[in-house]
Amino acid sequence: PIFRSCVNTGLAFGARHWVATLQLQCERLVFFMATNVPTKDSLGLHQWTKITTKTGQDMRVSSRKNLHDPGEPTGVIVCASSSLWLPVSPTLLFDFFRDEARRHEWDTLSSGAHVQSIASLSKGQDRGNSVSIQTVKSREKSIWVLQDSCTNSYESVVVYAPVDINTTQLVIAGHDPSNIQILPSGFSIIPDGVESRPLVITSTREDRNTQGGSLLTLALQTLINPSPAAKLNMESVESVTNLVSVTLHNIKRSLQIEDC
Fold first, then answer.
1. What sequence ranges are listed for the domain HD-Zip IV C-terminal (predicted)?
2. Which of 90, 105, 143, 188 has its CB 3.0 to 4.6 Å from that of 254, i.e. a possible disulfide?
């Protein structure tokens, strides 16, 4: 139901969305000086199961097994996803997730740690279209997070994944990137399709009259067992859905938003 206005107004599947997507793809090709877009075999859409958490939050869960793809860890992978409306402009929300100084406010992986961007590569004219590497330093250890951000006039996406430091350093030095394993999670941000509301939080006073709220979708992937033969159990599903719930709670708390 929260996506109804976005679909009915044509934002979701209309020509403006198509043009914005084509423009972003053209910018990627220019910045990468590429002549084609890499493709790989797809297994099609995964089957999603709707569940309701203990807090009453609707969530979708799917599972799959990686047997042969070297680009991600081998084993049983669970993905949990949830969407909600936030009284925050899409621009402010996108900038919030891109700000490494505020990552510890929502990311359970970097809770209590120091986060710093150590590399960034532009892939479009908008400064939000970039790929970056962030280092997350805590007392126990340091990890690297690879983050891909992209935005256009319709939607914004922030996708991130922890990566092995040694392997990533080899890739940066020019070695074969096929050995790096990435299991991405991330956010999709789109306008809610409703005219601006008085309580919408924006980054500037001018945006307050032109931007409505946002529809935020979080998808989080976790390797629950390194053995592809392992069986999926409810404890594993609950652990992933709990991470989604905690992350969404952290986001609302950081933005000083009451339960929506």
1. 45-256
2. 105
